[in-house]
C-alpha cells in the first residue's frame, strides 16, 4: 500500500518536471510546430489577410498608375431609309426618290498617352508599391497574431491535460484509501467515520475529474477553432517546455522599435499619406497628353450627287489642359491631405511610444514569470517531500486520514500552480518575441 501512495509523488515528479506524459484518451499527437503549420494553412483571418495581400499585389503595376498608353478600338454602322426630294442649283428638275436608303460604316483605332500630369502618375505608382508593402506587413502581423493565439490555446490544452492527469491520480489515491478504510473497518481497525471521510474525499475527487475533463475538452475545441479544423478533433499534445535565456532588455526594445509589425505598418501608412500630398498637389499642374488615331469611314446613298463617300487615314494631336479655377477645391484637397499626414505622423509617434513601453513591460513580465516558475518548483519539491513523509506516518497510524488528505491536497494544489506558472511563462515568451519582431525569422 505504501508503494501505491508513493506513486502520486512519482507521477507529479515526472509530469511536472520533464512534462513527458500525454493524455491517454487522445487519438493523435500534435506538436506546437505542427499546430502552427496547420493554422497558417487553415486559419480564417490569415486567409482574409492573404486575399487582401494578393489584391494589393495585383494593383501594384505601372498600368494601374497610368504610366502606360491606352489603346481603344471602335466601329459602327448606320442605316436609314426615307423619302427624299432635292432641288440642285442649275438643274431645272426636282429629284424625288421614295424609300431612299443610306448606309454608313466607320472603324477607328486610337492610342492615348499622358506625357505630363505633374508627376501624379509616378507618385500613384509609388503609392501602389507602398500599399502592396503595407498589406504584406499586415499579413505578417496577422500571421504573428495567429501564432500567438495558437500558442495560448495549445498551452491551455497542455495545462488542462496535466490537470486532468493530476485529478485522476488523486481520485485513484482516494479510491485506494477508501478501500483501505473498508478493509480496516472489517478487521475492527477503523470506524465508520473513517469510511465516510474517505467516501466524501473520493466523491470530491471524482467531481474534480469531471470538471477538469470538461475543461480539457473545451480547451481542445478552442484550439481547433484557431487551427481552422473540425471542432471535434482530438489529439495528444507535447507537454515538454524549454525557455530562452538570451533575452536582454535593451536589445528587445531596440528590436521592437525596428521590427515590430504594428509600428512598421504605421510607418508605411504615414509614407502613403505623404504620397497622397504629392498626388493631390500634382492636380495643380497642367496635363499634357498625346493621341494618335487611324480611321476608316464610308457612306453609301441612293439619292444625291454622291453615291458613296469613303476616306481613311491617320490623325495625331496634342492636348493641354490646365485647371485655372475650380472653386478652391484644389486648395482644400491639399490642405486636407497635409492634415492627414500630420495625423499619421502623430499616430506614428504614439505607436512608437506604446511599442517601447509594451516591449519593456513584456520583458519584465517574462523575467518575473520565470522567477515564479523557479519559486513554484521549489514549493513543489517541498510539498512532495511533505506528502511522502505524511504518507509514511499515515501507514503506521501516526497521522489521521484528515492530515493525510490535507498533505495530498496541498501537493496537488502546488503541482497545479507549478503547472500553470510554467505555461504562463512560455506564453509570455511568445508575446515577447512578437513585440520584438522576432517571432517569424
Report on the structure:
This protein is an alpha+beta fold. It has a single domain, classed as Up-down Bundle (Outer membrane efflux proteins (OEP)), CATH 1.20.1600.10. Helices cover 64% and strands 17% of the residues. The protein has a four-stranded antiparallel β-sheet with strand order 2-3-5-6, with no helix packed on it. It has a two-stranded parallel ribbon with strand order 1-4. Helix 2 packs across helix 4 (120-186).
CATH architecture: Up-down Bundle
Show unreliable segments: 1-26
Backbone CA Rg: 40 Å
What is the number of strand segments?
6
What is the CATH T-level topology? Outer membrane efflux proteins (OEP)
Strand fraction band? 15-25%
Give, in spatial order, the strands making up the sheet with the most strands: 2-3-5-6
Q: Give the rounded overall mean pLDDT.
A: 87
Brief descriptors of the model:
about 450 residues, about 15% strand, 4-stranded antiparallel sheet, Outer membrane efflux proteins (OEP), alpha+beta, 9 helices
Protein topology:
Blueprint: H1 2-18, E1 29-30, H2 32-42, H3 44-59, E2 70-87, E3 94-116, H4 120-186, H5 192-227, E4 236-237, H6 249-259, H7 261-282, E5 287-301, E6 308-321, H8 329-395, H9 401-435
Parallel strand pairs: 1-4
Antiparallel strand pairs: 2-3, 3-5, 5-6
Amino acid at each position: 500500500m505504501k508503494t501505491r501512495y508513493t506513486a502520486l509523488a512519482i507521477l507529479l515528479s515526472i509530469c511536472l518536471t520533464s512534462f513527458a506524459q500525454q493524455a491517454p484518451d487522445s487519438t493523435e499527437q500534435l506538436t506546437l510546430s505542427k499546430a502552427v503549420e496547420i493554422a497558417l494553412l487553415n486559419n480564417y483571418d490569415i486567409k482574409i489577410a492573404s486575399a487582401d495581400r494578393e489584391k494589393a499585389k495585383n494593383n501594384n503595376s505601372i498600368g494601374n498608375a497610368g504610366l502606360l498608353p491606352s489603346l481603344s478600338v471602335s466601329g459602327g454602322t448606320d442605316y436609314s431609309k426615307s423619302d427624299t426630294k432635292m432641288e440642285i442649283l442649275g438643274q431645272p428638275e426636282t429629284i424625288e426618290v421614295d424609300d431612299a436608303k443610306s448606309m454608313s460604316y466607320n472603324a477607328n483605332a486610337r492610342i492615348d498617352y499622358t506625357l505630363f500630369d505633374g508627376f501624379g502618375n509616378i507618385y500613384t505608382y509609388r503609392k501602389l508599391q507602398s500599399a502592396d508593402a503595407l498589406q504584406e506587413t499586415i499579413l505578417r502581423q496577422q500571421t504573428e497574431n495567429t501564432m500567438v493565439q495558437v500558442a495560448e490555446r495549445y498551452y491551455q490544452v497542455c495545462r488542462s491535460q496535466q490537470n486532468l492527469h493530476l485529478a485522476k491520480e488523486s481520485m485513484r489515491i482516494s479510491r485506494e484509501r477508501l478501500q483501505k478504510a473498508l478493509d480496516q473497518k472489517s478487521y475492527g481497525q477503523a470506524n465508520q467515520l473513517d469510511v465516510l471521510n474517505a467516501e466524501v474525499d473520493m466523491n470530491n475527487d471524482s467531481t474534480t475529474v469531471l470538471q477538469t475533463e470538461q475543461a480539457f475538452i473545451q480547451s481542445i475545441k478552442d484550439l481547433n477553432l484557431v487551427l481552422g479544423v473540425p471542432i471535434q478533433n482530438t489529439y495528444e499534445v507535447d507537454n515538454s517546455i524549454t525557455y530562452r535565456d538570451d533575452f536582454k532588455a535593451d536589445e528587445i526594445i531596440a528590436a521592437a522599435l525596428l521590427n515590430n509589425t504594428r509600428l512598421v505598418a504605421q510607418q508605411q501608412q504615414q509614407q502613403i499619406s505623404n504620397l497622397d500630398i504629392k498626388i493631390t498637389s500634382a492636380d495643380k499642374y497642367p496635363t499634357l497628353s498625346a493621341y494618335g488615331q487611324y480611321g476608316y469611314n464610308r457612306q453609301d446613298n441612293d439619292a444625291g450627287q454622291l453615291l458613296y463617300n469613303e476616306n481613311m487615314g491617320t490623325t495625331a494631336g496634342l492636348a493641354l489642359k490646365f485647371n485655372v479655377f475650380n472653386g478652391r477645391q484644389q486648395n482644400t484637397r491639399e490642405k486636407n491631405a497635409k492634415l492627414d499626414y500630420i495625423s499619421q505622423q502623430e499616430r506614428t509617434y504614439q505607436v512608437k511610444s506604446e511599442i517601447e513601453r509594451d516591449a519593456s513591460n513584456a520583458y519584465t513580465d517574462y523575467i518575473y514569470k520565470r522567477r515564479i516558475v523557479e519559486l513554484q518548483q521549489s514549493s513543489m519539491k517541498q510539498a512532495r517531500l511533505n506528502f511522502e513523509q505524511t504518507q509514511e506516518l499515515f501507514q503506521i497510524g501516526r497521522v489521521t486520514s484528515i492530515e493525510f488528505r490535507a498533505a495530498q491536497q496541498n501537493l496537488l494544489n502546488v503541482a497545479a500552480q507549478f503547472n500553470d506558472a510554467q505555461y504562463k511563462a512560455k506564453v509570455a515568451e511568445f508575446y515577447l518575441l512578437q513585440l520584438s519582431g522576432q517571432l517569424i525569422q
